[in-house]
Design goal:
The complex is a heterotrimer of chains A (333), B (479) and C (436). Chain A has eleven helices and ten strands. With 333 residues, chain A is α/β, with parallel strands linked by helices. Chain A folds into two domains: 27-118; 130-328, Rossmann fold. In chain A, helix 6 packs across helix 7. Chain B contains 14 helices and 13 strands. In chain B, strand 12 and strand 13 (461-463) form a beta hairpin. In chain B, the strands form three sheets. Chain B has a seven-stranded mixed β-sheet, sandwiched between helices. In chain B, strands 1-9-10 form a three-stranded mixed β-sheet, with no helix packed on it. A three-stranded antiparallel β-sheet of chain B has the order 6-7-11, with helices on one face. Chain B is an alpha/beta fold and 479 residues long. Chain B folds into two domains: 23-285, no CATH class; 288-478, 3-Layer(aba) Sandwich (Rossmann fold), CATH 3.40.50.10470. Chain C has 436 residues and is α/β, with parallel strands linked by helices. Chain C folds into two domains: 12-217 and 422-435, translation initiation factor eif-2b, domain 1 (Four Helix Bundle (Hemerythrin (Met), subunit A)); 221-420, Translation initiation factor eif-2b, domain 2 (Rossmann fold, 3-Layer(aba) Sandwich), CATH 3.40.50. Chain C has helices at 12-18, 25-37, 44-61, 67-84, 89-110, 159-163, 194-223, 226-229, 243-255, 278-286, 328-337, 368-371, 382-385, 413-420, and strands spanning 235-239, 259-263, 290-294, 308-312, 315-316, 322-325, 342-345, 390-393, 400-403, 406-408. In chain C, the strands form two sheets. Chain C has a seven-stranded mixed β-sheet with strand order 3-2-1-4-7-9-10, sandwiched between helices. A three-stranded antiparallel β-sheet of chain C has the order 5-6-8, with helices on one face. In chain C, helix 3 packs parallel to helix 5 (89-110). Classes of the chains: A alpha/beta (333), B alpha/beta (479), C alpha/beta (436). Chains B and C meet through helix 11, strand 4, helix 12, helix 13 and strand 10 of B and strand 3 and helix 11 of C. Chain C: Belongs to the eIF-2B alpha/beta/delta subunits family. Chain C: Residues 106-155, 175-195 are annotated as: Disordered.
Chain lengths: 333, 479, 436
């Protein structure tokens, strides 16, 4: 599967899968349910959980058949959402892993299935631990007396900042760039940081340039998270992140993209080509009610990124491609 | 003097009159000269390369070459005659001067007259140093050198450097006051551009006072050609003229040329003398305090000011800030090869500045800039593109300041402005004669790019560097 | 940076000589710790050499019967040395090299009999090639060593991706989440027999000798690139050239006519920099290469005439930054402004997996607050007093890194690091003292 075009084509397939109560297994519904129930997990991991759930409910016998079902379900799932990229990160990794493990187990699908189904909790735990790993590797970037800046509500980023606060309580400041599309969430984040005792200054996206130039002694680092970390080391994040990164880059402030490695995708976006259609420019000569975009995202180019912080440490941006290549044997995943 | 309060505190060390004592201190009547020397500088200036405390810190540039309106009054024939005289003088000097063998990788000064300074051949303010260098080329069989020509690496061979003309070699036409001044300049006792220009004008005043027009000529014709020019030649030979000296002399010649031909000598001299006084007053005595005031307005209480080396305009400004009740911190970064900042910092301390930091070189510049709110630097000159000619190292400070979002402010009187343009530090520069061998050089200046300068302040006010050319045009129209 | 002052003060030489004796191991380690702390051994080359020799003693003399214990011994001793001089990154590099060496040898011994599928890695690892194995790459100085296990096995997949779902380590939560666990036993190294211990010991000691040899050859190998980097007529700028840089320049001078500008700071007591490099300059002169000593306040004044700047390094950090001499940043910044390429020369043993961001203590910037102050009106030239102050050049200033393995750019660094250091050793400097 070439992941440079992560939106797979194909109509939903009729699946020979039934849930325990006999109703047809609905991968999409399962995914959304799991997402709602597991606020702590990232989308790629929830997608994996959904597929594991499918495995639990499948009664196909042969490995071949099961792989087909899995692939079809994955496609169905990713087709069903507007922004499939984070889901693809998960489903792609999962499918690849299943194939690998099948080979290792000599084709014994039952072993594979049992392993995956039995250890669902463990996987979830590991995913969460990976987030902690990001914080552990990255908190030292923040040194006493510094001012750092962040945007969005990435749990990996916030975990890092909180870990830093544990290490050097009250000795650094945060400039938080509010998200225009998620004002309540921004409020919550600011509130949480402040409760921890971190001096936090919220600003609007429009004020970033001035804030960066005016801050004394200057902003030392910018931390960004995102749904997926793309080939090259960029990230797809909330709208507003790219500007923050660019401004930081121009002022020689290092930008750190923080995230678990299961967010890596072998996909290189290009500005508004981010894997799905997000209407950006809507020229019109008549006033008309246009629906606001739901949770808009954008690509932060790797040119602006100084280093990645993952559960395995700090890396240069080319680490994504390196890891993909070493894992999958090709740059395309 | 301006309304600003008098001298900042106790004695100034070293570099001539920084902020207050009457500028005349450098050049006085012959009887007082010895006194004035010691007042300004602990060591009596020697004709030979000077002592360390008067380390050459800044320098000037080659003489001004231009033809303002006034010059046209000298006829073509006059000019030709002058040129011939100069050439003869040069040849004579060439024979006496060291023969420079043009071979050898360390590279002699391949003094080409087209040197990067854009000296126009018709110039009438000759550059003694250049003529000396020109002598290097045509001489085929060099006589044993009386004066050793310093060797300069080729890539810097186009740059000017102070010559050390010994007293014996001085032309007999040179007034003793000028001789003294020339020696002081060559020894870098009288060092920065403003002081040099002021001293030059005052010395010219004396020369003027001692002058009487011979029978059969007119004042305006004779004085310039036969008295003024040799003095200028000599000064330029001692050390290349700075831009403001060129400006001042050009102005002076213009005034001379305007003198009514029928006016009696004493009248003419008095008028000129007065004109010189006014010029000094307006362009130097008043300008300094005005600049200090305008700069002081930029300084807020509790600001941290960073400065490089020493310049009297900066010193004056800081003193004024303190007097006006502001509590400011000062960081002095020094040039390790001419640590004038050291004395400056001590003086600041003596003035009562509580919080001063001193660093002997630029090594920790970024760390200090983190603490700074403002960088102040005094200029040796300002180019018409807004670039600033200043002590070597200033360009580094300005570049860093810009990158770290700290405002860099340049202080410079308009007398030190020139219509020349510079975009790098090797177009116009000067080599330290004390530290120049075939092995190595020290450059005295660099050029701060306009993009690194937040504001430039002169007695006309504050502006951004890009407006300088407009101001100069206006000034030229008025002349 | 210069070595310790000769004379009665103990130096690297006397320390190395002392190793020939029969001193107790703890004393050996402690005396090096002291020498490092007192800066009687200083400069990256000397520190590296001393560290390698000390660790060799540890391998030879400490008690151990399996690889794990040996790793722990070396780790403990190494951490002591690192803490004695936390800003001399090269010490940690050598420790990690030795640890990696031990892991490799032990793994190899374990796998003995299984034919290797990949070709051995030669002396010159192709630059930029992704290494197949993540955590047990062979150090490149051993041509005889068989290469790492092939990529087919899932044990070699980057642990993060497969780790999530893999069967093997279901009960095992180490590695990714606790970066500073014990010395990384993801490939448990079992108890070995006496003869195996003996074999391992001699192999590791040989390996350490190879590292020492590698360090000795570095300057020569780096100089081999000189004539590519320096072209006829170039004006090359150096700042306080180290022996490595001098060697490089001299090699170029054999083939090229160029001009060398040496930027110097004034020496104490007013001496100029002219005499410092007299030997270098005379040699250059005899080759027809002119050198000019620039004794000017900043770098901007003459930089418009420079084609290239060449500097040495005490260390290169994982994100491409360079630890170098104080003031070199100023000159480098002026170079960058004029778009003058900056080339860094350093043996690959100076490349550190550490980032300045993960250092507990900043590279010796020293807070300016503690530097200078005026007390009672007198000037304190504190900066002058503090010799050997270093500076950190960020990666965006550097164009090219030249090591004994070739010419690299920033993109290559992560590959080089993973070639030379095991992942579990990367965070050695963060280990809690009680673990060491």
């Amino acid at each position: 599967m070439t992941t440079d075009t992560p939106t797979p084509s194909g109509a939903p397939v009729d699946l020979p899968v039934r849930a325990a109560d006999g109703a047809p297994f609905d991968i999409v519904q399962t995914y959304h349910d799991l997402l709602a129930q597991n606020r702590d997990l990232t989308k790629p991991v929830v997608a994996i959980k959904a597929l594991i759930s499918l495995l639990e409910n499948t009664n196909s016998v042969t490995a071949h058949e099961t792989m087909d079902v899995l692939q079809a379900s994955a496609d169905r799932l990713t087709n069903s959402v507007r922004n499939p990229v984070p889901l693809v990160a998960g489903t792609h990794l999962f499918l690849w892993f299943v194939r690998q493990m099948l080979r290792d187990e000599g084709g014994n699908f039952e072993n594979v299935r049992r392993h995956l189904v039995d250890n669902g909790q463990v996987f979830a735990q590991r995913a969460i631990h990976a987030r902690t790993g990001v914080a552990e590797h990255g908190f030292r970037v923040i040194k006493p007396g510094q001012t750092v800046m962040t945007h969005g509500s990435s749990r990996a980023v916030l975990g890092l900042i909180e870990r830093a606060q544990q290490a050097i309580p009250g000795r650094f400041k945060v400039i938080y760039v509010r998200d225009h599309y998620n004002p309540k969430e921004s409020e919550r984040v600011v509130s949480r940081l402040r409760k921890l005792g971190i001096p936090t200054a919220p600003i609007d996206g429009a004020s970033v340039l001035t804030a960066v130039k005016a801050a004394k002694p200057g902003v030392s680092a910018v931390f960004l998270g995102g749904e997926v970390i793309t080939k090259g080391g960029g990230v797809i994040s909330r709208v507003g992140a790219a500007q923050v990164a660019q401004i930081a880059h121009e002022s020689s402030i290092p930008v750190f993209v923080c995230g678990e490695e299961h967010k890596f995708v072998a996909f290189m976006p290009w500005w508004n080509e981010i894997g799905f259609d997000q209407k950006l420019l809507d020229f019109g000569t008549e006033d008309a009610e246009r629906p606001a975009t739901d949770d808009p995202v954008e690509w932060v180019p790797h040119d602006y990124v100084h280093q990645l912080i993952t559960e395995r440490g700090l890396h240069l941006p080319n680490h994504v491609s390196t890891t993909i290549y070493q894992t999958y044997g090709s740059f395309d995943g | 003097m301006a309304a600003v309060a008098p001298a900042p505190g106790p004695a100034q060390a070293g570099q001539g009159p920084e902020a207050t004592p009457p500028p005349e201190a450098t050049v006085q009547d012959t009887q007082d000269e010895n006194q004035s020397k010691t007042k300004d500088d602990p060591e009596p200036p020697k004709p030979a390369p000077a002592a360390q405390s008067a380390k050459p810190a800044k320098g000037g540039q080659q003489p001004k070459a231009d033809q303002p309106a006034g010059e046209k009054k000298l006829s073509g024939a006059e000019l030709k005659k002058k040129a011939k005289e100069e050439k003869a003088a040069r040849r004579a000097q060439a024979k006496a001067a060291s023969g420079v063998a043009p071979q050898g990788p360390p590279g002699q000064q391949q003094g080409q007259d087209k040197g990067g300074k854009g000296v126009k051949p018709k110039q009438d303010a000759p550059s003694g140093s250049q003529s000396q260098r020109q002598a290097a080329k045509p001489v085929a069989a060099p006589a044993p050198p009386k004066e050793t020509k310093p060797k300069v690496p080729v890539i810097f061979s186009h740059l000017s450097m102070a010559k050390r003309i010994s007293l014996q070699q001085t032309d007999k036409d040179v007034d003793p006051r000028i001789t003294l001044l020339g020696q002081q300049m060559a020894a870098f006792v009288v060092d920065d551009s403003t002081t040099r220009t002021q001293a030059t004008l005052l010395a010219m005043k004396r020369v003027l006072a001692a002058y009487s027009t011979p029978q059969g000529t007119t004042f305006s014709r004779h004085f310039t050609a036969h008295v003024l020019n040799p003095q200028i030649d000599y000064l330029a030979a001692c050390r290349p003229m700075c831009f403001s000296m060129g400006n001042a002399i050009r102005w002076l010649k213009l005034q001379i040329s305007k003198v009514d031909i029928d006016l009696a000598d004493f009248e003419a001299k008095r008028a000129l003398s007065e004109a010189i006084d006014n010029y000094i007053r307006d362009k130097i005595d008043v300008a300094g305090p005005v600049i200090a005031e305008k700069t002081n307005a930029l300084i807020k209480d509790k600001d941290t000011i960073l400065t490089y080396g020493h310049h009297f305009l900066v010193e004056r400004t800081l003193w004024l800030a303190k007097e006006s009740g502001k509590d400011v911190n000062v960081i002095v970064i020094d040039d390790p090869f001419n640590p004038v900042g050291s004395e400056f910092a001590k003086r600041l301390r003596a003035y009562g500045f509580g919080k001063i930091k001193y660093s002997p070189n630029l090594g920790l510049l970024p760390d200090y800039l983190k603490l700074a709110d403002l960088v102040l630097a005094g200029a040796e000159a300002t180019f018409s593109n807004g670039a600033m000619y200043a002590r070597a190292g200033t360009a580094d400070v300005a570049m860093y300041a810009k990158n770290m979002n700290v405002k860099f402010v340049s202080l410079c009187e308009t007398i030190n402005y020139t219509e020349r343009v510079s975009v790098d530090s090797l177009t116009y520069n000067e080599i330290d004669p004390e530290m120049c061998t075939e092995d190595g050089v020290r450059l005295l200046f660099d050029t701060v790019l306009p993009e690194h300068i937040h504001r430039t302040i002169n007695e006309m006010g504050l502006s951004e560097p890009s407006s300088i050319s407009g101001m100069l045009r206006k000034q030229e129209e008025q002349e | 940076m210069p070595s310790a002052v000769p004379g009665f003060a103990p130096t690297l030489d006397s320390y190395l000589r002392s190793l020939k004796g029969h001193a107790h191991l703890d004393l050996t380690i402690q005396s090096l710790v002291d020498l490092l702390k007192r800066r009687q051994i200083s400069g990256p080359e000397d520190c590296a050499l001393a560290t390698a020799n000390c660790l060799r003693q540890v391998v030879a003399k400490s008690k151990w019967t399996d690889a794990d214990t040996l790793l722990a011994n070396v780790s403990r001793a190494g951490s002591k040395l690192m803490r004695a001089r936390p800003n001399e990154l090269v010490i940690g590099n050598i420790v990690r090299r030795v640890l990696g060496l031990i892991r490799d040898e032990a793994t190899e011994d374990r796998n003995d009999g299984a034919p290797s599928e990949t070709p051995s890695e030669g002396q010159m690892t192709p630059i930029g090639e992704m290494s197949q194995s993540f955590h047990s790459s062979a150090p490149t100085e051993a041509p005889r060593r068989p290469g790492p296990v092939g990529a087919a096995s899932s044990a070699n997949i980057p642990r993060s991706l497969s780790m999530l779902l893999s069967a093997k380590d279901v009960a095992d939560n180490e590695g990714t989440i606790s970066p500073f666990g014990n010395s990384g036993t993801s490939t448990p190294l079992h108890r070995t027999t006496n003869s195996q211990v003996h074999a391992l010991r001699s192999e590791v000691i040989n390996g350490i000798q190879e590292i020492i040899d590698e360090m000795g050859q570095v300057d020569d190998q780096i100089a081999a690139h000189a004539e590519v980097q320096i072209r006829p007529g170039d004006h090359i700028l150096v700042y306080h050239p180290s022996p490595t840089v001098q060697r490089f320049i001299l090699r170029a001078a054999q083939k090229r006519k160029f001009t060398l500008l040496i930027h110097c700071m004034p020496q104490p007591r007013g001496a100029t920099g002219h005499d410092n490099y007299r030997a270098l300059r005379d040699k250059l002169k005899s080759q027809g290469v002119q050198s000019i000593v620039m004794t000017t306040g900043g770098g901007m004044s003459y930089m418009s005439r420079v084609n290239k700047m060449i500097i040495g390094a005490s260390a290169i950090t994982a994100n491409g930054g360079v630890v170098s001499e104080n003031f070199s940043t100023i000159v480098a910044a002026a170079a960058k402004h004029h778009r003058v390429p900056i080339v860094v020369l350093a043996g690959v043993y100076k490349l550190s997996p550490e980032c300045p961001y993960t250092q507990e203590t900043a590279v010796e910037f020293a807070d300016p607050m503690q530097h200078v102050d005026f007390s009672d009106g007198s000037l304190v030239h504190a900066v002058e007093v503090k010799a050997g102050l270093t500076a950190f050049l960020p990666a965006n200033l550097i164009d090219t890194y030249i090591t004994n393995l070739g010419t690299h750019t920033w993109e290559h660094l992560s590959g080089l690091i993973s070639d030379h250091y095991a992942e579990e050793d990367v965070n050695l400097h963060l280990k809690a003292p009680q673990d060491a």
